[in-house]
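Lecture notes, unit on protein representations.

Consider one protein chain, 271 amino acids long.
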Amino acid sequence: MRRKLILFTDLDGSLLDHQGYSCEGARSALERIRDLSVPLVFVTSKTRAEVLRLQGDMDIREPFISENGGGLFFPPGYRNFRIPGGVEQDGRILIRLGRPYSEIRRFVEERKTRFGIRGVGDMSIGELVEITGLGPEESRLAKQREFTEPFLVAGDAPPALLGEEARKAGLTITRGGRFYHLIGSGQDKGEAVKRALRIFRGNLGEEVLSVGIGDRPNDISMLAAVDLPVLIPHPDGRYEDVDLPNLRRAPCPGSRGWNEAVNGILDTAAP
């Protein structure tokens, strides 16, 4: 008997192209996912506001994980699921997994001069547009943070002492596509995916086949949490150094690689 397929995917550099943030190359796989009613769960460093905007543009009404595992959100009444630990907030059912943004901003404010770091909270809309390639409205949504702080640092990597101080404060540093991210210790994409899978399994009453798709170091915990991990190459064709059971490597970067990998999975695993 085939298991119920659930797709968890990173956005930037995976479903969305690194340059231009387009998902056009994934169009055929997205249409099949919709036709087959396969849950497509976004797992991203983006904010809740950014994801809701993107879901609206793509006509997707599914759960999502924001800010590197900081929050797990379900639409109200989603498939009549029971959602233990969820609270209604601003039209979504939220399971809070991350630290409050105010605590993380306080950590940054106390250290930004000493370590030469600049968080998204320190940047203007114009600066974010220039750094990310997002438009002004998308950059405004990216600043509506709840659980994490993306930041840039002078030099190639954050100083070791910053990492030590973060650990003492109950925080950790992870790396995404354009930014480093300060997040709560014990919070990552993988832990949030595990929580989501427990909810799916508890409500569906059937075996689940979980797929995770990502391209960056902050995606590795998600890839390790699923049955079938898929690694997307970087724009230069290089893959992250990942060694996991059942790992598949997409043939090309961004939405085109995502499309080919997902269509291959749907050919063999879809209901």
